[in-house]
Target: HTH-type transcriptional activator CmpR
Amino acid sequence: MDINFELYKVFYHVAKHLSFSEASQELFISQSAVSQSISLLEKKLNCKLLFRSTKKVSLSHEGKILFEHIEQGYNFIKSGERSVLEMHSVVQGDVRIGASDTICKYYLLPYLKKFNSQYPNVKIHITNRTSPDCIELLRKGYVDFAVINIPKNPEYADMEVRELKTINDVFIAGKTFEHLKGKKISIKDLKSYPILALEKNTSTRDFFDNYIKSSNIKVTPEIELGSNDLLIEMAKIGLGISFVMSFFIEEYIEKGDIFILDIKEEIPSRSLGVITHKSIPLTVASRRFIDILG
Model:
């Protein structure tokens, strides 16, 4: 089917903003030209892509499917463009990273500082999402790479996985549960205490749920949060026992605000890693950043 790619470009901008006026402003063409392009594309594809009213624009079922593909293709093209422009120099350009706020704060910060000092003219863009969400951003081309907690059996056939650091998870508690300090505790004993954990649809929560399931017990967290920092703070004030990664709690341990419970059953280790897309070439700047990670 021979369709002018400019029509897809117009469709992308309309679907992205759900607005004919915003699309016309971005493309520097009239709203009438935008409308004509959409009508022509719908005629070529023999289906309705957009529903238009006086107040809003929405995507049809076919429009949603088409946008998923166009959105990915658009980001792939932009990535390729950036790769060519940066081929002979890394003094300009940008790096787009997907990572959780915890990984940014407790792992990436020193590397961000080092990269910025070496390449001050490269702009760093960070999108904070959960690890599963970062993978979706990478698949759609919104980020160059993601630094995430790698699941035990990752289904990343379209990704390259590079392990950076071993992660150990622990249960922590504050002074309210001082009587548990130094004692060997079975995971089954934790059923008697309030458990605090990250909310669902995060890699750490998935890991927690699988660990509890493998121990043949049922534990339902009393409090579910979207922040590891809050899990620590709530453990400190005695609201319960929190499940967190050990590599960012050293400062709190040294201060005596919290302590690590000695669990009889082994908690398996996992990995922190950098994920790239096999089909999206990395820019020079992105490759340099990953090299700094080690």
Notes: The domain at 91-167+272-293 is CATH 3.40.190.10 (D-Maltodextrin-Binding Protein; domain 2). The chain has a mean pLDDT of 90. The chain has ten helices and 14 strands.
